[in-house]
Amino acid sequence: QVELVESGGGLVQAGGSMRLSCAASGSISTINRLGWYRQAPGRQRELVATMSQGGYKNYGDSAKGRFTISRDSVKSMVYLRMNSLKPEDTAVYYCNARLSTGNTDYWGQGTPVTVSS
Predict the structure, then answer these.
(1) I need a labelling partner for 111 at 20 to 30 A (CA). Which of 20, 34, 39, 57 fits?
(2) What's the pLDDT score for residue 23?
(3) What pLDDT is recorded for position 92?
(4) CA dihedral of 57, 81, 20, 48, whole degrees rounded to 10
(5) From first to last of its 117 residues, what are the pLDDT tens digits of the chain?
(6) What are the residues facing 22 on neighbouring strands?
(7) How many angstroms separate the CA atoms of 112 and 15, rounded?
(8) Nearest Cα to 20, choosing from 34, 30, 1, 2?
(9) Using CA atoms, how far apart are residues 109 and 14, in angstroms rounded to an integer?
(10) How far is C-alpha 110 from the chain's CA centre?
(11) Centroid of chain to Cα 35
(12) From CA 89, how far away is CA 104, in angstroms rounded?
């Protein structure tokens, strides 16, 4: 079992920056990949960025060039630095952990991000 707790969301003006944090606990040794997804009202959940234990990063199209994912394996944390935020980045951002043993995913409760124009 893995527990994920996000923090850092809130309200920001367009063009601003924000950093999200996610703390993982529980069976953290089983985690291969940590990352972020988001879901805007009326839309499907979409990939923002993921980072594997080996350091491989994968970004969704909307995040490329503006967002940076990083991971602190010692602290079992994953971060998302978001720059040049746009109103269309408004969504609930979810932390995700995928286990090394298969396709099991765990999710945090989500943290809302609102970008005002």
Answers:
(1) 57
(2) 97
(3) 98
(4) -40
(5) 999 999 999 999 999 999 999 999 999 989 999 999 999 999 999 999 999 989 999 999 999 999 999 999 888 999 999 999 999 999 999 999 999 886 899 999 999 999 999
(6) 6, 78
(7) 17
(8) 34
(9) 25
(10) 9
(11) 5
(12) 27
Residue for token digits 């298969």? 102
Is residue 22 within 8 Å of 95, Cβ to Cβ?
A: yes
Question: Which pLDDT score is estimated for 37?
Answer: 98
Any idea what DSSP says for residue 98? Answer: E
Name the token pair of 31: 């985690």
Tokens representing residue 106 in the block: 């765990």
24 close to 17: Cβ distance less than 8 angstroms: no
Q: Tell me the C-alpha distance between 108 and 92, whole Å.
A: 11
